[in-house]
Each structure stands twice: as C-alpha cells, then as structure tokens.
Design a protein that fits this description.
binds iron/sulfur cluster, two-stranded antiparallel sheet, 4 helices, 173 residues, elongated, alpha+beta, single chain
C-alpha cells in the first residue's frame, strides 16, 4: 500500500469509528477524519529563498505566488515584474522566467499584475524583489487544491527560517 492510499485508508477508518485513530509504527496520532492538518506559509517569516520551488514533492510545486491587491501599488514599473528598464516585455527584462505574471493596464498610470498559477513554479523571485523594492504585495502560498497534505511537508523540513506552519482545519462536509 502506498503512503497516500494508507493515509486515505486510515482517514476512512477514523471516520467510520467517528473519532481518533492511532497509526501504530509511526506513532502518529491522526485527528478526526473531519479535520485535516494543513501546511501554511507564514509570509512574514518567509525569505523567498527558492526552496519552495525545488523541495515540494509535487512537480511543479504546490506553492504559488499570489498578489495581494489591497497592498499592491499598481505600479507602472513593478519590481516583481521587471528586472530593469526599459519598460518593454522583452523576456530579458522580466523577473518571471516562465511568464506567469500577467500585466494589464487598468488606469492612466496604473497596471494590474495577476498570476497565472498554471505557469508559476513558486520560485519566489518576484516575491523577493517586490518585498525589497516595492510594497511587498506578492507572497507565496501553498495552494490547497494542489497540495498533497503530506504528513510532513518536505518544504517545511527544508525551510531555513521554519516559515511553514501546521494548521488544523475542519474539512467541509
Ligand atoms: S522554503 Fe521557507 S523561506 Fe524558502 S520560500 Fe519556502 S516558505 Fe519561504
Ligand atoms: S517569479 Fe517565480 S514565484 Fe513569481 S510568478 Fe514567476 S514563477 Fe511564480
Ligand atoms: S505538504 Fe507536500 S505537497 Fe504540500 S506543499 Fe508541502 S511538500 Fe508540497
């Protein structure tokens, strides 16, 4: 039985028992089946070190960049988007190698930056530069629909500032 199918089996068993199951050898206490333990990035502690791209068991990573529009300055020259002037979409001038950041004019001098998550690999380069020179509106997030909910997050095990937190939440019925 694979690790994944073992987890599913144990969760179903716990649900059937309506309570708590103990996983013998590993000595891991599984919570009630209607609760799951998820991993979340603490955006303040995260240094955008690059390991979110390389350490996730998923390829490409379950970690994606998100832009917090409430914080974003809608800058014409976005430091997370352009490495350097001139302002042209020549790939040489752009931070994001896979082209995951979409730039759209939304006002006279305002530009909106959205992330195409299907292209983002979670490298964090844009996050680092936006934080260093801009408003810090870009951050990394573990996307729930992609995360395999590993018992021990491989990124968390490698994360230099221990920025991955475990959170319990109620699984929706
Ligand atoms: S490994 Fe940790 S510090 Fe590095 S990008 Fe991921 S969450 Fe941030
Ligand atoms: S620079 Fe990296 S983290 Fe930012 S959008 Fe592109 S692939 Fe994602
Ligand atoms: S829990 Fe697993 S799938 Fe999810 S982010 Fe961590 S290593 Fe990737």
């Amino acid at each position: 039985m694979t690790e994944e199918s073992r987890r599913v089996f144990l969760l179903r068993a716990a649900r059937g028992a309506g309570g708590v199951a103990l996983v013998g050898g590993a000595g891991v206490l599984l919570a009630r089946a209607d609760r799951v333990t998820l991993h979340k990035i603490d955006a303040v502690q995260c240094t955008a070190c690059g390991l979110c791209e390389t350490e996730c068991v998923r390829k490409p990573s379950a970690v994606k960049c998100v832009n917090d529009f409430a914080k974003c300055g809608y800058c014409e020259f976005c430091y997370g988007y352009y490495y350097h002037a001139p302002i042209t979409d020549d790939p040489k001038n752009l931070v994001c190698a896979p082209g995951a950041i979409i730039r759209r004019k939304v006002g006279d001098v305002q530009y909106e930056y959205t992330i195409d998550e299907s292209k983002c690999n979670g490298c964090g380069k844009c996050v680092l530069l936006c934080r260093k020179f801009g408003n810090g509106s870009f951050r990394l997030e573990i996307r729930r629909d992609l995360c395999k909910e590993c018992n021990r997050c491989a990124i968390g095990a490698a994360c230099p500032p221990a920025a991955i937190r475990m959170r319990r939440y109620e699984r929706p019925a």
